[in-house]
């Protein structure tokens, strides 16, 4: 990954097509997490001081030598009606990803078994939908039951959910639902025009009400400013309670998407974002998510030092490449990191 001199990359640096939408007013957060000013002050700390503070908080809640491994599978690929400017699976862009149907239950369970045999503790299943249809729910519930029966933690990301969909997934035993806020409210309309920030918040609330743990994070490197990165962390930390699992994705620039030529983010700004997420959400699992394939191992190690304690593990993410399993095993061994039996983060105190 190359380095760009300005940590506060401005929206003017990304292609005009990706900047077509309006900037929206911020929705009111449900609870007051750290203020944007507080978060910006963390971002502005000297790098060693920021890493020290993030490490100290990390160690209060987690063993710093323990990392969680989650494998991903795209159970329904491509042809998505949403226009997310970063996404290779949107039908709005010509990225060479073909649209497919929902995978048969048995194929998904076989893939989960292989991921478990390779060492994954959690199996995350993604579908390129705006939202699942009622006719999909029986197969989805069966997938959750069978993957869980293997002894793996289960996570799904299927787009927006109705109450009854969330309840059906909860009843099947789904451990986590991934639904990202992706960026700050005021930048959202520049990236996605086919849904609103409020719709994302509504689904997150339905997931919580159904009793499913929340996995919610975002993407950096889309041309947002530092204040907008801080705005994302503020929104996440203001969810009530904040998510148990927070994926921080680095944009994977995919040819054919409006963000294919986005200005690269300063790598240290990415590490700062991980550290700030750790400080703002001390008990969450902070997940070093998309973008590792494009990062040197030294940068990944810095992210783990800054408070990340989970990675996506397996040769592909959903449709783009991830580091090879053997390379990750070797990296964990070189860093002296362990993979323990899966646990869920302790709930945030009231
Ligand atoms: N369709 C569902 C949704 O959007 O919620 C689930 C699948 S979607 C691919 C899950 C997440 O993947 C997105 O919210 C985004 O954060 C991440 N993602 C997608 N494309 C990416 C890219 N090119 N680089 C980094 N992260 C990406
Ligand atoms: C998340 O926040 N990142 C994962 C998972 N949740 C579903 C997806 C990353 C996708 C990266 C691009 C791709 O391969 O499609
Ligand atoms: Fe569809 Fe999800 Fe991709 Fe957006 S991120 S285009 S909703 S698959």
Span between termini: 41 Å
Overall shape: globular
| Uncertain ranges | 1-28
Tally of helical runs: 11
Which ions, cofactors or small ligands are bound in this entry?
S-adenosylmethionine, 6-(5-methyl-2-OXO-imidazolidin-4-yl)-hexanoic acid, iron/sulfur cluster
| Rg calc | 19 Å
- In percent terms, what proportion of residues is strand? 5-15%
Helix content: 25-40%
For the sheet with most strands, the description reads: 9 strands, parallel
Task: Describe the SSE topology.
Layout: H1 36-43, H2 47-61, E1 68-76, H3 105-118, E2 122-127, H4 137-149, E3 153-157, H5 163-172, E4 176-178, H6 185-191, H7 197-209, E5 213-215, E6 218-220, H8 226-238, E7 245-250, H9 267-280, E8 285-288, H10 297-305, E9 310-312, H11 325-335
Parallel strand pairs: 1-2, 1-9, 2-3, 3-4, 4-5, 6-7, 7-8, 8-9
This protein binds S-adenosylmethionine, 6-(5-methyl-2-OXO-imidazolidin-4-yl)-hexanoic acid and iron/sulfur cluster.
Explain what the structure shows.
- With 350 residues, this protein is α/β, with parallel strands linked by helices.
- Helices cover 36% and strands 12% of the residues.
- Strand 7, helix 9 and strand 8 (285-288) form a beta-alpha-beta unit.
- 49% of the residues are buried.
- Bound molecules: S-adenosylmethionine (SAM), 6-(5-methyl-2-OXO-imidazolidin-4-yl)-hexanoic acid and iron/sulfur cluster.
Gist?
The protein has 350 residues and is α/β, with parallel strands linked by helices. It has helices spanning 36-43, 47-61, 105-118, 137-149, 163-172, 185-191, 197-209, 226-238, 267-280, 297-305, 325-335; strands spanning 68-76, 122-127, 153-157, 176-178, 213-215, 218-220, 245-250, 285-288, 310-312.
